[in-house]
Amino acid sequence: MKKKKLTALLTAMAMMTGILSGCGSKGAESTPAKDAPAADGPAAAQEDAAAESDSGTASAGDAQPVTIWYYWENEGHQMTLDQLIQEYNGSQNQYAVTAKYVPFADFKKQLSIGASADELPDIAILDSPDHASYVDMGIFEDLTGKFDVSNYYEGTVNSCTVDGKLYGVPFGANCLALYYNEDMLTAAGGSVPTTWDELLETAKALTTDSVSGLAFCSVQNEEGTFNFVPWLWSTGATSYDINNENGIRALTYIQNLIKEGVMSKECINWTQGDVMNQFIAGNVAMMVNGPWQIPTMQSEAPDLNWKVTLIPQDAQYASVLGGENYAVVNGKNVDGALDFLTYATSGEKVKFMMDQFGYISADKTIAESQFAEDSPYYPFVEELNYAMPRGPLAGWPGVSDAISLAFNQVITGTATPENAAAQAQTTIDGIVK
Amino acid sequence: MDEEKRLSRKKNILFSVIAVALLCVLLFPLYWALITSLKTEQEIFQNPPTFYPHILNTKSYAAQVETGDFNMFRSFGNSFLISMGATLIAVILAVPASYGIAKYRFKARKALLLSFLVTQMLPVSVLLTPMFIMFKNMHVYNTWVAAVLADATIGIPFSVLILKNYFASIPKDLEEAAYLDGCNTFTAFVRILIPIAKPGVMVCAIFSFLYAWGDLAYGMTFILDQEKRPITAGIFNFMGQYGTKWSYLTAFAVVTIIPVALIFIFMQKYIVSGMTSGAVKG
Amino acid sequence: MAKIKKFFRYENVGMLFVLPAFLYMLAFVGYPIIHNIILSFQDVNAGNLVKGTRNFVLFDNYLELFGDSVFTTSLWNTLRFTVSCLVFQFIAGFALALFFSKRFSLARPVRGILLVPWMIPITVTALMFKLLFATDIGIINFLLRSLHLIDKNIEWLTTPGTAMFALICANVWIGIPFNMILISTGLTTIPKELYESASIDGAGKVQTFRRITLPLLKPTIESVLILGFIYTFKVYDLVYVMTSGGPVNATHMLSTYSYKLSFEMFKYSKGSAAANVLLVILLFVGVFYIKATTEGENE
Fold this sequence. Notes:
The structure holds three protein chains of three kinds.
Chain A: H1 2-20, H2 32-35, H3 41-53, E1 64-70, H4 75-91, E2 95-101, H5 104-117, E3 123-127, H6 131-137, H7 154-159, E4 161-162, E5 165-166, E6 169-170, E7 174-175, E8 177-181, H8 182-188, H9 196-206, E9 212-215, H10 222-234, H11 245-259, H12 272-280, E10 284-289, H13 294-300, E11 306-309, E12 319-322, E13 324-328, H14 334-344, H15 347-357, H16 364-370, H17 378-384, E14 387-388, H18 396-412, H19 417-431
Parallel strand pairs in A: 1-2, 1-3, 9-10, 12-14
Antiparallel strand pairs in A: 3-13, 4-5, 6-13, 7-12, 8-10, 8-11
Chain B: H1 9-37, H2 41-44, H3 59-65, E1 66-67, E2 70-71, H4 72-103, H5 109-118, H6 124-137, H7 144-168, H8 172-180, H9 185-196, H10 198-214, H11 217-222, H12 235-238, E3 239-240, E4 243-244, H13 246-266, H14 268-276
Chain C: H1 2-7, H2 10-40, H3 60-66, H4 69-100, H5 107-113, H6 116-119, H7 122-132, H8 139-146, H9 160-187, H10 192-200, H11 205-233, H12 237-242, H13 254-264, H14 268-294
Helix pairs in contact in C: 2-14, 3-14, 4-9, 4-11, 7-9, 9-11, 11-14, 13-14
């Protein structure tokens, strides 16, 4: 009896939002089943309400539901994923895939809570450095032998491999490279820097009262670590071994950029998006950033004259590997998840997704033919050869935290490079034994 | 009414001028958000800053209406439903509770008062996992009901604490007069005391509503479908690792403020008179 | 029978009024509190969150925390943040409430509009203040420069001391209307006749304030301060958006650090322990409040 009342209440509420939202639900609706019942009033709404309460029941005929969680807030990314899903759902009738957006800032939390409450999706598309932690949590299915990743960049495969077993499939790859404002460079009479010394000189030449020579995101979190490790690795230091001549040299170099006034301290508050906004506003002459900014830059500042090159080197070229991996949650609809992933990782689909995303395929054979030589994306493909992954390590969040604290201490001047390196090393040694 | 005449004309003008000056200072951040939302990104980064948009840019507002899965009108409706639900629960439960605490001297009184406070003493982050498990078992996970139930837990203790002072300030003889008129405990409460405490109830309702309106953690965690999420969730569409655009963010701020501000301005007469009409007469 | 009768004595009827609200809170917050206490005595991290044994480690998490310099900094930060905010927002809110209790023409509409800062979701407020305090494009630096108070931009959010100041400013801005409206409402419970007879007796303004306003407002003031303390002490959204605890952990609060431990570092038990330290401190404040407010009223 009570349940009936509740259902009635839910129905009423569902109808209410139906009215409220009547004006625009065309968006990126990735639920094929949901669009259909909306047509016939209360009964459908009731069905909808019922489906909500035990979020597992099949909603479209006999098709089994397969859910995906992802964190791209970018509208283009969402629509592209949606398109892939629609095509998949149309191609067969055994499974019905739906995708749900979980914001990046909430992603780790939602997965942690979901794991505790046994309320996880069938597929998660997650940030590659976190992959090992979730494998450690035991929520991902072993995919060894189920996907052919032999043509993939080694780093991307490593990021989802733990103890020799494959726990995911790389979605796509990206890395960081150096963007420069060509007009400013020409005006200052500089040349494209290839070494650290040249970079500092060029940055000095480009710096004026209103323009910083260089910027890269230095926020004290994973995003900042992502932007700092290329400098660290370029000296020959590793993420786990910082308290040595090389590690200290990397930190000292960053300290110099601030001291010389060619980079703003404000970088510790700038996300990669903020850095890009500063660059296109003409407040920054060179920046380190990823290829995913290109579509936005092209549409927001079509007249800006910029180019991309390798991040200048100290002892060797280095960049960092970014991107997402697909993972299949165990104990859920594994067959459905595998079926969808097989579809999504086929060459043709990968190429479509990567082109739309502004990503580089993790599959070398696709990546190498993906862009023409004059494409702004092309330098990223070259940079990818020098890109290394973070981790993979279950305790990576701890290591990353120690590294990001170290360069933040140096940038804000609260510790010398030597002290910051020593302190980070102590923390890291506590994690990596 | 005639109270207003108590201030001399000079004083009236002086005070009004001071009030307006205060208003300008305190609301400056809002003005700044409004004009920033109407500037182009380039103009935002301009130095010296401009105090009004030289080039009017409304692109940021167009994006509010619909970006990806986010639909502003729908989210607004969700927020409204969730906040109303939470307010209703908070007021219905808190009004009698505060009356009980204010007017009766039973033994567990202190312990109960403390326990209401204790419920507010944990940061939201650690409440999320256990609450999530409960809502899942209750089959309300991923519905507004979960957010309503969770949001009400902020409004209840708050309202109890504020309202108990109200009921305590009502003289006992009023209640006794009610008993003489043949009321029992409950009818006296409903007919005499609630109407007197109206301003307090009003304030508690407002605060409960606003706590629920501003909530982000509960709405985000317990509701997974974008189309059921409250308007605060929209912030993630504009603030993520791939970009912070001030014009978009400030437009979002303006958009979330305007509807509530309108409701409040529309209801101002009612709210303000509720707040200022002396609670106790006689 | 006698017992039942005794239970339904006049006083205990009050319990029936309180019970529904109490049971509601017990159901939805009671279990999480217990869950959290148990978790803080275990060793739960990513490896044994879902499967594997959870060992009881007694006070290990707490001991570890007190040896962790970021934790002790956040504890100290939380305290000074809370106290600074309370002092400023209470004084300003009180002054405004008194000011607007004067019956001038614009008093009511302006007071109504001043509530607007309270209607804004805190995440949004945090973003607005981040913009105001930005180094290069921030309006605050621009104003200070124009007034020749500074000649170089202050790096508000990237310097430890000033970042805390910026956070306090933002929180006080939210807190002023909160204090103002609650004190305004409290002022209405003071019978006007008292003021009238005081002025007939020739009492001055200061005297009236001290003898009538303050004592009669005492319960309201106590509630405002305790609620203000609790809500400020567990500040989360504001810090998360404005500084995320930075620069170099200088503005971490107990709540943000607890969140970071639990959901960014996967140290769930340590995160729970940090949250419980917050709970224990607030519990002391709560007991003190109950003592202070109920003192002398049990005839």
